[in-house]
Design goal:
Molybdenum Cofactor Biosythetic Enzyme, Chain A, binds adenosine monophosphate, 4 domains, Molybdopterin biosynthesis moea protein, domain 2, alpha/beta, elongated, 17% helix, binds magnesium ion, Molybdopterin biosynthesis moeA protein, domain 3, 6 helices
Length: 394
């Protein structure tokens, strides 16, 4: 069986970056920029006032502190006039400076007496003026390709006049739950049935990442229906199934995936939970068959699905592994590498407390107390209090 590291690296080498697409600027949030954004003009595009006040010629203030106000400039006006010796113009924040003027005195430092403006506190030369091109000059790279687009980057691009940008495309994903016992929340539930936790977990995980998905519903453990639904799922860049990948008599997913022409990359990883995870590909799409237990689905989402989506979108597929100290002893049966639900608190350093009374991969309720997984290596059966451990926040 593959180790976690082997499985992770097989996923990352199999999954390819998706092609570029042009999107409306705001829709690029969370994507990686595929081409440089350059300034098409100087920013600011003109010398502008940073304050509400009066635009004046600095040198006039060396021999007078009263100026004649010859007009008013509102932000956005295209009106142009000249400020001559002994004159000033009322100016609002964001307006272009009138010719002749080089300095703005803020309104709070002046006194108006009719047309006359008395300067109470002399500004420094060019005070309260943003010079043309001082932030960025025409042709400067505003954002280089491969930049991850957050609100700040989107805003910068907007300020440079971009309405559309090229990014690496977001994958489209399909989600499929399998199992005769699985019932959608809201439906009647008979004895022996359980509600479907996995589909909502996957759908909301994807929504949080702004990844579009198609929900293909629940499929009974039946080859024919499974086959046609999987074929539908394979039209997406990524198809995620839950349930039916283990060794039970009705765990049909691996067999049916193979019938659908999916090439198996691996089936089984030496991890806990998540041992039966299946990973395969067909043409341009990749498929994960996840074990049905919700904690396994959650762990697999953090460990495999998120990095897969990142890689598809051109981002570095990294797991954010941190180090911290155990707040208590931890014991277990050694075996597979384990991702144990834990609570991490930062108090000068990360302090890790494994969840008490965790009942295994079906126990989603235990995860309410947790905010990450502590990583326990294969051979470890005991970790003393204060031991240094690795963990992943989710
Ligand atoms: P399986 O991987 O199909 O053997 O399922 C393992 C366990 O996960 C079983 O107890 C299933 O009932 C449960 N399970 C499977 N699918 C889901 C689901 N969509 N939501 C909640 N539990 C599930
Ligand atoms: Mg099942």
């Amino acid at each position: 069986m593959l180790s976690f590291e082997e499985a992770f690296s097989k996923i990352i080498t199999t999954v390819k970056r998706l092609p570029l697409e042009e999107v409306a600027l705001v829709d690029g949030l969370g994507c990686l920029l595929a081409s440089d954004i350059k300034a098409g003009f100087d920013i600011p595009p003109f010398d502008k006032s940073a304050m509400d006040g009066y635009a004046l010629r600095f040198k006039d203030l060396s021999f007078q502190n009263e100026l004649l106000c010859i007009g008013e400039l509102q932000a956005g006006t295209s009106q142009r006039f000249v400020v001559n010796k002994g004159e000033c113009a009322a100016i609002m924040t964001g307006s272009a400076l009138p010719s002749g003027a080089d300095t703005v005195v803020m309104k709070e430092d002046t006194e108006k007496q009719g047309e006359k403006i008395r300067i109470l506190k002399s500004p420094r030369i060019r005070e309260n003026v943003c010079l043309k091109g001082e932030d960025l000059q025409k042709g400067d790279v505003v954002l280089p390709r491969e930049t991850l687009l957050g609100p700040l980057e989107i805003s910068l691009a907007a300020g440079s006049g971009c309405s559309h940008i090229k990014v690496y495309r977001r994958p489209n994903v399909s989600i499929l739950a399998t199992g005769d016992e699985i019932t959608e929340p809201g439906e009647d539930i008979g004895f022996g049935k359980i509600f479907n936790s996995n589909s909502c977990l996957l759908m909301s995980g994807l929504s949080k990442m702004k990844i579009p998905y198609t929900y293909l519903g629940i499929v009974r453990d039946d080859e024919d229906t499974l086959r046609s639904r999987i074929e539908e799922g394979l039209r997406s860049d990524l198809c995620i199934l839950s349930g039916g990948v283990s060794v039970g008599d009705y765990d049909l997913v691996p067999k049916v995936l193979s019938m659908c022409g999916v090439e198996k990359i691996f089936h089984g990883i030496s991890i806990k939970p998540g041992k039966p995870v299946f990973f395969g590909r067909k043409n341009g799409s990749v498929v994960f068959g996840l074990p049905g237990n919700p904690v396994s689905v959650f762990v697999s989402f953090c460990l495999f699905i998120r990095p897969t989506l990142d890689k598809m979108m051109g981002k570095k597929p990294i797991l954010n592994i941190k180090r911290g100290r155990l707040t208590c002893d931890y014991n277990r049966k050694p075996g597979r590498k384990q991702f144990f639900p834990s609570k991490a608190i930062f108090d000068e350093r990360w302090l890790i407390t494994p969840i008490k009374d965790y009942h295994g991969p079906g126990d989603l309720a235990s995860l309410r107390e947790a905010n990450g997984f502590m990583i326990v290596e294969e051979k470890i059966s005991h970790l003393p209090k204060d031991a240094e451990v690795e963990f992943i926040l989710w």
